[in-house]
Design brief:
With 206 residues, the chain is mainly alpha-helical. 44% of the residues lie in helices and 11% in strands. α3 (50-62) packs across α4 (64-72) and α8 (132-140) crosses α9 (142-148). The two termini are 22 Å apart.
């Protein structure tokens, strides 16, 4: 990855210190209590995250009709899957839309305004997704940015950039890897990464 997306070694520590200070202030003012943050984090560690997106993508890979419905009406298609947790359309899951990679087209998800992101299917956004350099360069020169991520998109393939917002939160259905025809949905889901559902990587067979 380009040095443009690298950060100082102490960034995590400094960010954690700021977050702790903000949490302490909110508790002091009675806006949250001492367990609020831990409760929210536990939700996104155990119930809402990229493991949900991986299940959705795996179903789309094995069921073309479901894939069509997922692209046409993403929330309705997701609601069909009974093994996903309640609240998929709740916080940060409102108005989710899926786009599918395929022959001649590769999709990339960004958010030029801030860091809008479909948390229930992708988890919490990484640092680089929120970085102003990534957000601006990916909009202007997506092929160059993808190459810096290690993904060299052929010139014959169209790169479509989708800008997430509070109104629409996009995610990608990556192409199914070759040689996976005999794999189960669970095995296929293990091949799906958050990066592939953002469009900065592809799903690769194990």
């Amino acid at each position: 990855m380009s040095d443009r997306f690298q950060y100082p070694n102490d960034r995590e520590a400094r960010s954690a210190a700021r977050a702790k200070a903000l949490e302490a202030l909110l508790i002091e003012k009675g806006i949250i209590n001492a367990t609020t943050v831990d409760t929210v984090l536990k939700v996104f560690e155990t119930r809402m995250g990229p493991f949900n997106g991986a299940k959705i993508v795996a179903r789309a890979w094995v069921d073309p009709a479901f894939k069509q419905r997922l692209v046409a009406d993403t929330p309705a298609a997701i609601a069909e899957l009974t093994d996903l947790p309640e609240g998929m359309a709740g916080a940060e899951g409102e108005h989710m839309r899926a786009v599918a990679n395929g022959e001649g087209v590769h999709n990339l998800i960004i958010c030029t305004l801030c860091s809008c992101y479909p948390w229930p299917v992708l988890g919490l956004p990484p640092y680089w997704y929120k970085d102003p350099t990534f957000r601006s360069r990916a909009a202007r020169e997506p092929r160059a940015v993808l190459k810096e991520f290690g993904l060299d998109v052929p010139t014959a393939t169209e790169v479509k950039v989708w800008d997430s917002s509070a109104q629409i939160r996009w995610f990608v259905i990556p192409e199914r890897p070759a040689g996976t025809e005999g794999m189960s949905e669970a095995e296929l889901a293990a091949l799906v990464t958050p990066e592939s559902m953002m469009g900065v990587a592809v799903a690769n067979a194990a």
